[in-house]
Amino acid sequence: MDFPLASDLHAVPCILMRGGTSRGPFFLASDLPAQVAERNRVLLAAMGSPDPRQIDGLGGAHPLTSKVGIVSRGTPGQADLDFVFAQLQPDADTVDTTPNCGNMLAAVVPFALESGLIAAAGDVTRARVLTRNTGMLCDITVKTPGGVPRYAGDARIDGVPGTSAAIVIDFLDTAGSVCNSLLPTGNAADTLQIRDPATAEPRALAATLIDNGMPMVLIRAADLQRTAHESVRDLNADTALKATLEALRLAAGELMGLGDVSGKSYPKMCLVAAPASGGSIATRCFIPHVCHEAIGVLAAITVGSACVLRGTVAATLADVRGPGPVHAISVEHPTGEFTVELETAPGNPDSIIRSALVRTARPIMRGEVLIPASAWPSH
Questions:
Q1: Is 178 part of any domain?
Q2: Does one domain contain both 26 and 133?
Q3: For residues 74 and 141, is the Cβ–Cβ distance under 8 A?
Q4: 158, 287: one domain
Q5: Exposure of 170 in the CB half-sphere (CA atoms within 13 A)
Q6: Over residues 87-100, mean pLDDT
Q7: Is the pTM higher than 0.85?
Q8: What is the Cα 32 distance to its own chain's centre?
Q9: Which long-range contacts (CB under 8 A, 24 or more apart) does 44-50 make?
Q10: Which domain holds residue 222?
């Protein structure tokens, strides 16, 4: 059915995609403004930000459903596809394209197939994707029997109902994705010095500052008188904890070479503890001011990396079985677990040479998002 378009709205083609435990519209780069500031205005209008409910856009009133993917053909000899991830916030007018998102990454190849950017290569299609945010390369494999994307399958990921076809992501170079290296301070553990937000007294806490796909600050939950087994609701209501975590985040940002991170969505904060349900490590992650209902893909890889590296705050708590060099690390989170596969270099257990995982994704809706003409005046 064709609908008449009001003269003061612009129509922008997109496909609403679920990628892992995240969701958001995917756009062809050619369908968006080339100028960044104008592109960001279009994305804010499409998502309905800033507004806590995002009532006037596609956003889902949560950081995990306030994400956008932008895809284009890659440079021959470098990658098949280029991907730009944009993190928006329900109640802010920011569009952050500096971090990665492994969940939305899982939807890149399905979107490219659906939109005709690439063609299926037999029953299984493997494409190399360059995430422009950080220069991260990965190989993504999807099922395309008969040359058609297959979304039904038996792969289950916690945080998503039902089962779907497995999408395998092999990360090629995640170490130091935003920071200058895997351990940006050169230390497996550091001491963060802050003023306690409640008492203004000096306070020191041990932390691991690490970036294997996502800049993160790992802190033993017990050091903050927590367990890392609390509910998401309780942690989101814990204003004292969140104030302390933000003070620690600001201090860590400087040490990690990220400068003032008060307006940035990274580093993520993560409480860690010994596993409780047969996994390798228990986590409660903040993204960065809201407790994650699960854990992000690249956050899980980064936490898993800390589990296998000697001297980190996670290594003293983690249950890592077997000598390696390949480790399956089960990261427990509020809605289940997330298993990542990490491989260390032969003879050098402190060098991670490969990380891989399984995700699922699917298109939810295709069409056009209508935005006010004022958001794209040059259109």
A1: no
A2: yes
A3: no
A4: no
A5: 10
A6: 94
A7: no
A8: 23
A9: 44/88, 44/93, 44/95, 44/375, 45/371, 45/372, 45/375, 45/376, 46/12, 46/14, 46/369, 46/371, 47/88, 49/88, 49/89, 49/90, 49/91, 49/92, 49/93, 50/89, 50/90, 50/91, 50/92, 50/93
A10: 190-356
